[in-house]
Amino acid sequence: MSKKSKKSKKSKKKHEKASLPQQGAATTSAAGGADRDGASTTRPKMKRKDYEKEMRLLQGELVAMQEWVKTSGAKICVVFEGMDSAGKGGTIRRITERTSPRVFKHVALPAPTEREQSQMYIQRYFAHFPSAGEVVIFDRSWYNRAGVEPVMGYCTPEQTARMLRQTPSVEKAMADNEIILIKYWLNVSVDEQTRRLGNRITDPRKIWKLSPTDLASYRRHYDYCRARDAMLAATDTSWAPWFVVDNNDKKRGRLNIISHLLSQIPYAPLPADDVKMPRKPTPRGYVQPDMPLRRIPTPF
After folding, report:
1. Residue 258, C-beta contacts closer than 8 angstroms, at least 6 positions apart
2. What is the distance, to the nearest Å, from the Cα of residue 97 to the centroid of all Cα atoms in its chain?
3. Which of 283, 260, 295, 208 is nearest to 95 (CA)?
4. Which end of the chain is more exposed for a tag (fewer CB within 10 A), N or C?
């Protein structure tokens, strides 16, 4: 066995030892305390250097998992739900940052068209379910009907109730068809949500993240908590459990989520190929032609 393969196995065992989040409503935290929203309130925020070191190891494991998924033909579906500004997008970016877009597919659907509105609610998501050798990550999902839609008045209580009744059966069918479904709900406290939304208003790099719905839903924070509790009670099943993440500290949250995700997939690092760098290429008579080229300015 190669040194690289041994190192990868040791890294996986290390992260498998991490305690898993509790299923159901978030009331306590491994960090030692939680506020009324279930968001951790006690541990100091993680330092950037420590965070990047751990992230590098975990992203290496994600690549190892990717190669196993391709070889085994596994089908993995990951759902991210949570409060606005809870850190879903940033977590997904770090998961997909070093992986192949041909294997890890990020799905964030826009508002449904008029045709889609006439369909069974979950129908438009079916086309994005994973095929063999794929990991599909939903940035919000069919659970919109259990969260943002009822809170913002975009659907009726009867429509939400129907969705909550039907969803466990749909997810059971997914499990029966060998799709590994992993569902995360990201919690964030009111104070931290206030800070993050404020940053989106003032930071030109983040203004695109801010929508009228975000600002309107901010005032309904505890309505989201009530909707979350009803959703967890109705759709937390043995074949598709919910995992709750206290994400006031986004660095810790991302590391904890990726570590937990890896622990849910029965992958084994494949033997490393003995790759050797080929010889440096030679011109073999090639001469660059004397022709005008439009080169970009170089202010840096």
Report:
1. 55, 58, 59, 61, 62, 91, 94, 95
2. 12
3. 260
4. C
Which residue in the block uniquely carries the two structure tokens 């033909």? 73
What is the H or E stretch that residue 69 is in? helix 48-72
Q: What fold characterizes domain 3-263?
A: Rossmann fold (3.40.50)
d(CA 25, CA 38): 8
Length of the chain: 300
**pTM, to two decimals:** 0.81
Q: Map residue 116 onto helix, strand or coil.
A: helix
What confidence tens digit (pLDDT) does each residue in 223-240 have? Answer: 999 999 999 999 999 999
> What is the residue type of 184?
Y
Q: What is the pLDDT of residue 21?
A: 34
What's the pLDDT tens digit per position in 27-46? 333 333 445 555 545 678 78
Residue whose structure tokens are 């939903």? 138
| Residues 80, 95: Cα–Cα separation, whole Å | 12
Percent helix, percent strand, percent coil in the chain, to nearest 5: 45, 10, 45
β strands within 129-241, DSSP E: 134-139, 179-187
CB 136 within 8 A of CB 77: yes
Return the number of other C-beta atoms located less than 10 Å from residue 203's C-beta.
11
- Residue 92: Cβ-neighbour burial (10 angstroms; 0-12, 13-18, 19+): buried
Q: Is the dihedral of CA 257, 260, 264, 266 positive or negative?
A: positive
Coil, helix or strand at residue 42 = coil
- Angle at CA of residue 258, ends 252 and 259, nearest 5°: 85
CA distance linking residue 180 with residue 102, whole number of Å: 18
The answer to whether the beta carbons of residues 87 and 247 sit under 8 Å apart is yes
